[in-house]
Design a protein that fits this description.
With 248 residues, this protein is an alpha+beta fold. It has helices at 6-14, 33-64, 70-81, 87-90, 112-125, 142-152, 213-225, and strands at residues 94-99, 102-104, 107-111, 153-156, 159-161, 169-179, 182-192, 202-205.
C-alpha cells in the first residue's frame, strides 16, 4: 500500500508546495514529466523505508524488551533508501523474517483472534461439516462460513498465556520465491514453545447460532490430526491435543 496518492503528490508538486521532501518549483513554469516521476518515486522510497524501519525497530525493541531508539529507525531507513551502502543489501540473495509471540509483564501469549482464525480455517476446510446449506443443497462457501464464524463464535479471554516469560526456542526454515528481481530466499524465523505447553480458553457461541458442540469438537480434532495453528503449520507444527473439554 502506498503511503500517499500519486494524484495528490503531482497536484501539490505542480503547485510548488514541495510535498514529501521534494523540491519546490515555480508553478507558473511547471516541470517535465520525467522530473515529476523521479521526485514521486524518490518520495515513495523514503516514505516506505521509514515505515518499514519504524515497524522493524518496534518489533526488535519489543523482542529485546527495551525502549524504541529513534537512531535505529534512522539507520534502518537509510539502509532501505541506499541499499548499496550495505553489503548485505547490495546483493539481496537472503532476507530474514522473524515472527514472534506477543508478550507483556505476564509473559508470552496468543490473542483471541489468532485462535479464532484457526477455527475459521478448520471450518472452511471441513465445510461439509459446517451447519447450513445453500438453496441448491451444496455446502456453504468459504466466505459465508468465515462470516458466520466471525459473528457467532468467540474466544475468551482476550489474551491466552502459556505461563512462560520467554519462548522455548526459535524455529528457522528457508522460504524461496520467484520475484521480478529474480530468485529470492528468505530465512523465516519463528518463536516456538515445546510440546507439553498448555493453553486454556473458553469458546462461546450465540444462543441462536447454528454451531453446536459436535461442530466445535470436529474442528478441534482437526488440530490434532490435520493442521494446527500458528506459523509453519503446513509443516506439521502447531498441532495440539485437547486434554479437557467441558460444556458450561
Amino acid at each position: 500500500m502506498r503511503p500517499f496518492g500519486c494524484g495528490l503528490f503531482i497536484r501539490d508538486y505542480l503547485l510548488g508546495h514541495g510535498p514529501n521532501g521534494s523540491p519546490q518549483i515555480d508553478p507558473r513554469v511547471g516541470a517535465p514529466q520525467a522530473d515529476i516521476f523521479h521526485h514521486y518515486k524518490t518520495a515513495i522510497i523514503h516514505a516506505t523505508a521509514l515505515d518499514r524501519a519504524t515497524r522493524e525497530e518496534e518489533r526488535q525493541a519489543r523482542h529485546e524488551k527495551r525502549a524504541i531508539d529513534p537512531n535505529n529507525i534512522e539507520r534502518l531507513a537509510q539502509r532501505g533508501i541506499n541499499p548499496e551502502e550495505n553489503q548485505d543489501l547490495a546483493q539481496p540473495s537472503e532476507d530474514k523474517v522473524w515472527r514472534g509471540f506477543l508478550s507483556n509483564i505476564q509473559g508470552i501469549y496468543l490473542m483471541d483472534y489468532q485462535v479464532k482464525g484457526y477455527f475459521k480455517e478448520a471450518a472452511s476446510i471441513l465445510s461439509k461439516g459446517f451447519p447450513g446449506f445453500r438453496k441448491s443443497g451444496d455446502p456453504l462457501g468459504v466466505a459465508t462460513i468465515k462470516g458466520r464464524m466471525d459473528n457467532c463464535l468467540f474466544i475468551d479471554p482476550r489474551r491466552l498465556y502459556f505461563g512462560l516469560k520467554e519462548p522455548d526456542g526459535i524455529l528457522e526454515r528457508p522460504l524461496r520465491a520467484e520475484t521480478l528481481q529474480g530468485k529470492r530466499t528468505a530465512l523465516a524465523r519463528s518463536d516456538m514453545v515445546k510440546e507439553g505447553r498448555t493453553l486454556s480458553f473458553e469458546i462461546r457461541t450465540l444462543v441462536q447460532s447454528p454451531i453446536e458442540e459436535k461442530h466445535v469438537r470436529l474442528w478441534l480434532e482437526y488440530g490434532e490430526r490435520g493442521k494446527g495453528m500458528g506459523e509453519f503449520r503446513n509443516g506439521g507444527y502447531g498441532r495440539f491435543i485437547v486434554e479437557e473439554f467441558t460444556k458450561l
